[in-house]
Amino acid sequence: MKKFIYADPLQCSGCRICEIVCSFEKEKVYNPRKSRIRVVRTRELIDLPIACIHCYSPPCARVCPVNAIEEDEVVKVIAERCIGCGLCVEACIIGAIDIHPDGYAYICDLCGVCVEKCPNQALKIVTPSQVSQRKQLEYLTRMLRGESP
After folding, report:
1. What is the pLDDT of residues 37-69, one digit of tens each?
2. Ranges of each domain in the chain
3. Which of 70-74, 125-129, 137-141 has the lowest mean pLDDT?
4. Cα(first)–Cα(last) distance of the chain, in Å?
């Protein structure tokens, strides 16, 4: 079953430790520009880590002219095939794929280091059904409290 990194915006402090540990795990350097996860500011004081959601039939793979993106349990880039054209970046619906400073596309491979090292436990590796169940529970809780959905 597909899995992805779920980020809870209420737990994320914007510390960017996930970016630092990811870059070190994958590149052996502390450089957020080489991280496979990115923290973006969505609203004032709300930070949200963004990582590949490993779509079914991923648009990034469909547009790749050299078939450098493959889908299995995770979506992965075969760096040796990638020509760095950026079509995958344009196709990604959430902005989770980027072009590495060395000229090839790169994305999260679900190694889990960011999840392990997040000081606020804002990141989790989940399945879509786990997210759906959580959303249903939140909705029911709001309804029982008399809050609007």
Report:
1. 999 987 777 888 999 999 889 999 999 999 999
2. 4-144
3. 137-141
4. 29
For 4-144, CATH number out of 3.30.70.20, 3.40.50.2000, 3.50.50.60, 3.40.640.10 equals 3.30.70.20
* Residue-wise DSSP of 49-83: EE-----SS-HHHHH-TT--EEESSSEEE-TTT--
| CB neighbours of residue 74 within 10 Å | 16
Q: DSSP characters for the chain?
A: ---EEEE-TTT--S--HHHHHHHHHHHSS--GGG-SSEEEEEETTEEEEE-----SS-HHHHH-TT--EEESSSEEE-TTT-----HHHHH-SSS--EE-TTSSEE------HHHHH-TT--EEEE-HHHHHHHHHHHHHHHHHTT---
Residue 124 pairs in a beta bridge with 6
